[in-house]
Amino acid sequence: MPAFRPLLDAAAASPLARGLLAFGSAEAATRVVRIGTLLVVARRLTPEAFGTAALVLSLFELVRVLANAGIGQRLIMASDEELPALCRTAYRLFWMVCLGVAAIQLVVAAVVSTVFGLPEAGAMLAALALVYCAMPPGLVQIFLAMREMRMERVAKIAATQNIADSLLTLALVLIWPTAWAIVLPKLLAAPVWTLLARRAFRWTADRTVAPAPLREFALFGPAILATELLTAARLHADKLLVGALFGTEVLGLYYFAFNAGLGITQSFVAACSLVVFPHLARKDGGSRRAEFRRSFALGLAMLVPVVAAQALLSPIYVPLLFGERWIPAVPYVALLSLAALPLYASALVGAAMRVDGRPQRETVLNAAGSAAALAGLAAGAPFGLAAACLGYGLGLAAIALPAAFARLSATPTRLIPIKGA
Q1: Distance in angstroms (rounded) separating the CA atoms of residues 418 and 421
Q2: What is the pLDDT of residue 1?
Q3: Taking the chain, what is the end-to-end CA distance rounded to the nearest angstrom?
Q4: Gap between the Cα atoms of 368 and 314, Å rounded
Q5: Tell me, what's the pLDDT at 12?
Q6: DSSP state of 420
Q7: Measured distance CA(98)–CA(347) in Å, rounded
Q8: How far apart are CA 190 and CA 196, in angstroms?
Q9: Does 147 map to a domain?
Q10: CA nearest to 145, candidates 131, 160, 163, 157
């Protein structure tokens, strides 16, 4: 990518580059373990079992997004003077939000079990509600670590949790080849994240400082929650839609293709957004545009070769690695892997909008992208699953790529001030 070479050279020694490389390396290690696990899981479980696990995990992710209320983003943007008071309030808010979300998930589990007649899926969702009890003790610490740009540590925590999840899945599927073998490790690995997060940044509440008022979180909270809900709808409601349109067996095929295709790169996309947000927050309005372009180019240079390899080599590695039973999923793996590019563009533009103090614009962008992606999937469904996968990616690209182009070519604008930032 010769056009990006000057930008990449300028960014090579930056904290951003180190953060992206840390997340990229962690993701590579995680994926090696996950692919090895998937090799075993794909041969041990039927598409129906995959479909049941896909339904449960999609509902879990849709509910869990309610915990992303912009609390941590406000801590990242805080000044040193206001940080102790904000941390005290944030800790309380994290507990309130997580327990509230756990209660909502229990209600969803009851509905799935009684109304839809899926007691096993309902029991899995109820068990996963315990994950929310492991989150609040480490959330303040993890966001403070991100605020200090300790991205190598944050990446290591995420990788360790994901590897623990995969290894537990491997162990369970060998002795208990059911959908529970995919779902239960999400709960068992949660305490691993909590312990590591608390070690990543030593923090205790300063009780000599009064907690900050709740209104300090008002700018980011509603807009970011709406954005996260829309993002979750785009990334997880597609599976519910495929299940409704094609049935559980085809859903299992789609879920496998999603994990073997887009699932491999979407974690890196999310990591790019996590790294870029605190990095841009340290820049003023005059230099932020140039820094965004460098960040965009650096991440894209890392992502494009992976996406190209996935799409072009899927006819070879899918049957070789996962078995001949998954050959029908090859075109879906290739098509879904391409959706990582507009997903990346949307994630970085959204991070820049948050730093600008305009999270509402990110909400609008994600609303349009989510609607277009799901509409594209639904529009392609009458012509088959391949057309549905293509429609998903094209719908997302129709919104994300023009927004990225506009952001890359725009002149700096006056930012909305954030108190104390």
Answers
A1: 5
A2: 43
A3: 37
A4: 30
A5: 45
A6: T
A7: 24
A8: 10
A9: yes
A10: 157
Distance CA 421, CA 414 (A): 15
Give the residue among 88, 60, 64 at the shortest CA–CA distance from 75: 88
In Å, the largest CA–CA distance within the chain is 64
Does residue 46 come out as left (phi exceeding 0), alpha (psi in the -120 to 50 range) or beta? Answer: beta
Q: Give pLDDT, residue 8.
A: 43
Among the listed residues 238, 242, 257, 220, the one whose alpha carbon sits nearest the alpha carbon of residue 360: 220
Query: Is residue 70 a contact partner of residue 223, using CB atoms and an 8 Å limit?
Result: yes
User: How far is residue 384's CA from residue 378's CA, in Å, rounded to a whole number?
Assistant: 10
Low-confidence spans in the chain with pLDDT less than 50: 1-13, 413-421
Residue 415: inside a domain: no
Among positive and negative, which fits the CA dihedral 366, 58, 258, 377?
A: negative
Judged by DSSP in three states, 41 sits in helix
CA distance 302 to 28: 12
Per-residue pLDDT of 344-376, as tens digits, reads: 999 899 888 888 878 888 889 988 988 999 999
Helices and strands (H, E) in the chain, number of each type: 19, 0
Residues 327, 253 contacting (CB under 8 angstroms): no
Kindly state whether residue 42 falls inside one of the protein's structural domains: yes
Q: In the block, which residue shows the tokens 């940080």?
A: 83
Domain limits at 89?
A: 2-409
CB 267 within 8 A of CB 155: no
Q: Are 82 and 198 in contact (CB under 8 A)?
A: no
Judge whether 125 lies within some domain. yes
Contact 137, 194 (CB under 8 A): yes
The number of distinct structural domains making up the chain is 1
